[in-house]
Specification:
globular, 8 strands, 35% strand, 21% helix
Length: 139
């Protein structure tokens, strides 16, 4: 639970991750606790918690990553504002995405501007990993 963070993500990048065209999540910051899982809250117009990804250790620029993948060449060339690349190892989708209104009402959730540790929302954590909502593996 402490090694899981929630990131906001634009819908177009979420689609690229799901299709495996984008295989790293790029960020300009590194959480103090190295995440092993990243929960993706998809921003407007989706406005829902949709995915949970298992990630590898962040690659720190100027270290290089494989060139196959959206944004990878730009990261390697230093053309991204992001200094960190989290390799996406596995991706799951929530059987039922959780819309922002429900997240707010049931769990006191606020969409993260940068990131938030998942343990800030223990009831949400238990709900996501409980029998009420199943995670479906995509890859």
């Amino acid at each position: 639970m402490t090694r899981e963070v929630i990131f906001s993500l634009k819908p177009e990048f979420a689609a690229l991750i799901e299709s495996r065209e984008k295989n790293h999540e790029f960020r300009g910051y590194l959480p103090k606790i190295t995440p092993r899982k990243i929960w993706f809250y998809i921003t407007k117009p989706v406005s829902s918690l949709v995915y949970i990804a298992e990630v590898g250790s962040a690659v720190v620029y100027p270290q290089k990553i494989g060139i196959a993948g959206v944004g990878n060449s730009d990261f390697n060339a230093g053309r991204k504002m992001s200094k960190y690349a989290f390799p996406i190892m596995h991706l799951c989708v929530l059987k039922r995405p959780l819309p922002l209104v429900e997240l707010q009402e049931k769990f006191g959730f606020t969409a993260p501007q940068g990131f938030v540790y998942a343990n800030k929302y223990p009831k949400l954590y238990n709900f996501v990993y409980g029998e009420e909502n199943t995670l479906i593996g995509i890859f």
